Amino acid sequence: MNQAIETIMKRKGTLSYTNQQINDSDRDTIISCGIAGPTARNLQNRHFTVVQKQELLQQINDGVRTVMSAPSEYNPLYGAPTLIITSAPVENAPFADQDCAIAVENMSLAATALGLGSRYIVSPTRFIESEAGKILKQTIGIPEGYRSVACLIVGYDADPIQAPTTRNMNVVNYVK
Ligand SMILES: Cc1cc2nc3c(=O)[nH]c(=O)nc-3n(C[C@H](O)[C@H](O)[C@H](O)COP(=O)(O)O)c2cc1C
Q1: Residue 114 above 90 pLDDT?
Q2: pLDDT digits (tens, 9 = 90+) for 138-165
Q3: Which helix (H) or strand (E) holds 15?
Q4: Ligand 1 nearest-atom number relative to CA 123
Q5: pLDDT tens digit string along 3-31?
Q6: Ligand 1, CB cutoff 6 Å, lining residues
Q7: Inside any domain, residue 162
Q8: Is residue 171, in this structure, part of any structural domain at all?
Q9: CATH code, 126
Q10: Gap from CA of 56 to ligand 1 centroid (Å)
Q11: How far from 134 is each of 49, 58, 60, 86, 170, CA to CA, in Å?
Q12: CA of residue 123 to ligand 1 center, whole Å
């Protein structure tokens, strides 16, 4: 099978990670693939924040759990050692959510191609954009006037033999 197609078919939302951090070269490749995604009117005004500091990841994990009123055993970051947050200008960027979503999916496919696990998540934005997340948002350097939109967690898959989620294929109609 064509390698790009194989990567798309192999991608899955990883739910458990080892403690091992991804290397900087893989991290940079993943970010480059995010930046390579298309943006509406080629405005390119989305930002990428890479969080790898354990203390801050823990703070985000716990903050999300609190805003979601989730039980203590729920870890919204699933123990992943890297969190990439895409953010976009609050003003004058009507399609920015789509720009961010595309970037995250590109990065997820890049992670898969590099043999890493990843998962598209939005739950961190619930904390980051809340009153409780204000200081953290500044600490991690999300630009002033930007709001977090979509995120990717990345790391080594602790359960690599888990198969991708099955899909309902009955969702297409063809008009010829
Ligand atoms: C827009 C979007 C938001 C998502 N948000 C979360 C999230 O906050 N937390 C989470 O665990 N998974 C989240 N997911 C992952 C989906 O639950 C997952 O992709 C879906 O169950 C299909 O599984 P797969 O990725 O393994 O194919 C999100 C996915 C998308 C596309």
Answers
A1: yes
A2: 999 999 999 999 999 999 999 989 899 9
A3: none
A4: 8
A5: 999 999 999 999 999 999 999 999 999 99
A6: 12-13, 119-123, 164-165
A7: no
A8: no
A9: 3.40.109.10
A10: 22
A11: 15, 16, 11, 16, 43
A12: 10
